[in-house]
């Protein structure tokens, strides 16, 4: 049995470092948007394109990364992606206008899109199957922990330096990852394919994924289909998406190999990857907003709150990797336990009250960290286990793209849920507070006197008193909404457990005496 050599350890370090560049950058930018707005003189709408532009180009390149690896060689495409990402980071940090920054973020997204799935493909090529679970576990630590430590790092940089440094910090790590890639990552035996670019398919992909991503990013703020351009983009996404699927299924050498979904292991695992993206990115978004927007925590405090959960994931993933290597239980058993723990996390968050502090988040987020560790590795192992040769980069690209879209759709649904549910709770609470109610009158009187003592006239003081009461009601409505959201998310993940029955084990012909049948899907 092969063992982890020094070269293999360096390969793991290299691909994790490159993946972290993309993952941390995705979340680190969010906490610096306010400072960017002031420094660049941008509006809230304009600064939003800093996030959207990156997301659109990133998802498109994730989808194409399998084809790019096959066309130009995995090692060289991976190295080129790191270099492009690093150069774009420097350009982002030197931007003097918001639209200049948006352009460089789009370029950065193109580089970042080649990192995650290509890194995973490199691991699969480097490690034999008996070691792949542990290697994927170590890689998975970076995938899960990256988005969580981003807000902490971003908060520290924003508080102590300037927003430019959230981009400049990528440079030394990008240079190191490039050098290690060229020295230690080996090119697979397969020769790069001499396949011409299918420009029609490429255009359809850009139109479909780009339009869909903008709809998901901007839909809630633009009132969804009440806005003309959102409706137009949704129609474009639907039609170009259908034409793209048709073209790829009828081409001999497609850019994106959708035929991989004929493999039930890959198809089912990718479906669960979509759900994982929903839970991972959705809750990673919700918790900081909950802590900062409702409870008044700073970005740095919120980052520290989320850090223990990330460390729990870092501990759990290697353990799961070892357990998978020993084949004590079917991988779906671990995933089911993870889904159950995610329900426990969500239910615990849903039971919190307004009298909470930093410590009340500790155990729920620890449980969430364990859950993510138990879900991620088994699903990744199952979905990619049957792929061979050029199918590996194509499969990892599709899997990562689906998880990314799952996150985008999850975030869009969650933000819409929050808006609708908050309005519902606000209306209900407001109905129980009337101007004729003695308790309300007394509260208004106390607040009015307080404002008048600070120099306000009677009319302004009364208006401020009612405004303060309205904001208090809105805060309570928002808190109730988050409680509902966490409970519903937990129930959603709990209901997914029976679907794991789709994963069954099929014993294959024994090749070696010590080998045990691999897990596949019937």
Automatic annotation (TrEMBL):
Gene: emrB_7
Main location: membrane
Compartments reported by the entry: Cell membrane
InterPro entries in the record: EmrB-like, MFS, MFS_dom, MFS_trans_sf
Pfam families named in the record: MFS_1 (PF07690)
PANTHER family: MAJOR FACILITATOR SUPERFAMILY MULTIDRUG TRANSPORTER MFSC (PTHR42718)
NCBIfam families: efflux_EmrB (TIGR00711)
Molecular function in Gene Ontology: transmembrane transporter activity
TM region(s), chain numbering: 9-29, 49-69, 76-96, 102-124, 136-157, 163-185, 197-216, 228-246, 266-290, 302-324, 331-349, 361-380, 401-420, 485-503
A GO cellular component annotation in the UniProt record: plasma membrane
Family under the similarity heading: Belongs to the major facilitator superfamily. EmrB family.
Mode of membrane association: Multi-pass membrane protein
Swiss-Prot/TrEMBL keywords: Cell membrane, Membrane, Transmembrane, Transmembrane helix, Transport
Protein name (Swiss-Prot/TrEMBL): Multidrug export protein EmrB
Residue ranges constituting the Major facilitator superfamily (MFS) profile domain according to the UniProt record: 11-508
